[in-house]
């Protein structure tokens, strides 16, 4: 008996909401809506437009890391401040390296990151294996960069093996993008694995 009453009340409430919504739509579309209701709708729309946007934390080079879950890449990113070859080589002892004149994640332009790969079974420094699996990356794979409570998402648009003369990296771009590169074959600088990805967006994270 009680269940039947609840069912009847629920049906009545649903019908009332449906009729009210339909009436509201008719009044709004035909221009017959009272002025006070129009003002209410306009105020609600302006409230949504002017609502404060939570700003993303500024990118920090401290503790930044890059992940490509599809192939198991997970490495710290080092940010050298000089393009001197010795400085860049030294940076690779700590992980993959961000090229100094390239953009930072989330910015317009190209984020250029390069790293070591090796085919040696045992290496003393695991940073030398950071991009060993980069050649396995495929179009559509996700690349994630984490830093300072923010997660930057990129999606692979191309993955190629190129000769050094064709593996030109351009820093300028009209949109935010990411380029990763390492030697090919693994551990041999004969050619280059070059992976490009488009920026998808940023989310808060730990």
Describe this structure in words.
The chain is of the alpha+beta class and 206 residues long. The chain folds into 2 domains: 2-49; 65-204, Sortase (Sortase, Chain: A), CATH 2.40.260. The chain has helices at 2-30, 35-49, 85-91; strands at residues 65-68, 73-78, 96-98, 109-114, 142-147, 150-162, 176-184, 191-204. Strand 7 and strand 8 (191-204) form a beta hairpin. It is globular.
Question: Rg from C-alpha positions?
Answer: 27 Å
For the sheet with most strands, the description reads: 8 strands, mixed, barrel
Arithmetic mean pLDDT: 80
CATH class of the largest domain: Mainly Beta
Sheet with most strands: strand arrangement: 1-2-3-4-7-8-6-5
Q: What name goes with the CATH superfamily of the largest domain?
A: Sortase
Number of strand elements: 8
State the end-to-end CA separation. 52 Å
**Content of β-strand:** 25-35%
Number of helices: 3
Which regions have little confidence, pLDDT < 50, spanning 5+ residues?
2-7, 36-54
| Coarse shape | globular
Q: Give the total of domains.
A: 2
Helical fraction equals 10-25%
Regarding quaternary structure, how should these chains be classified?
single chain
CATH architecture type of the largest domain: Beta Barrel
Question: How is the CATH topology of the largest domain named?
Answer: Sortase, Chain: A
- Give the SSE order as H and E letters: HHEEHEEEEEE
Helix- and strand-based class?
alpha+beta
